[in-house]
Description:
The complex is a heterodimer. By secondary structure, chain A is mainly beta. Chain A has no helices and 11 strands. In chain A, the strands form 2 sheets. In chain A, strands 2, 4, 5, 6, 9, 10 and 11 form a 7-stranded mixed sheet that branches. Chain A has a 4-stranded antiparallel sheet with strand order 1-3-8-7, with no helix packed on it. The radius of gyration of chain B is 14 Å and the shape is globular. Chain B starts with a strand and ends with a strand. By secondary structure, chain B is mainly beta. In chain B, about 0% of the residues lie in helices and about 55% in strands. Chain B has no helices and 11 strands. Classes of the chains: A mainly beta, B mainly beta. The interface of A and B includes residues 50 and 105 of A.
Amino acid sequence: KAGVTQTPRYLIKTRGQQVTLSCSPISGHRSVSWYQQTPGQGLQFLFEYFSETQRNKGNFPGRFSGRQFSNSRSEMNVSTLELGDSALYLCASSLAGEWNEQYFGPGTRLTVT
Amino acid sequence: KNQVEQSPQSLIILEGKNCTLQCNYTVSPFSNLRWYKQDTGRGPVSLTIMTFSENTKSNGRYTATLDADTKQSSLHITASQLSDSASYICVVSALGRSGGGADGLTFGKGTHLIIQP
């Protein structure tokens, strides 16, 4: 069974631009969670989607948004990029949102210049 | 406020030696604790998960301990190998919470382990 895939793996953007990241969960998994990882803050929860609905949300500004499609694939969007948004963005999937059964993707490394 | 503190921040040891990583938490009410290994440029991979009633759990050369009274956990790596070089992240879940919400999962910032030949 294929694992969680994320595209693109690397991305360079300039301040003020917007970016869309994609995550394809493990087949059969309906929950997708997104995390931001930086050296200073570690892993921070962004939001979780289940059956196309946002079920949980972390403490991030409204510039961070996401959505989930009927095939469980998910996208994350960041508008008006700031230098501080440079990070590794990870998504994790699970069957129904059980946090202890999450499988992480390899991440998308976003660099904002 | 729920918090997870890991120590040391970074550690360098020689191949073949043992080491112990620490995780202290203030998450309440406690549900369970998981240790992840994250290789550079990769997503975290689960090593062990421990519930309130478990004191010790092993996964090959990795042994995790949990003291729910003192709210401390440790991850012991035996006979380290070069492939053990990675970040090790402690994650604690609060009871009754699901998903990854702000009050569901609390992440430590990790210990960066380097194994030298």
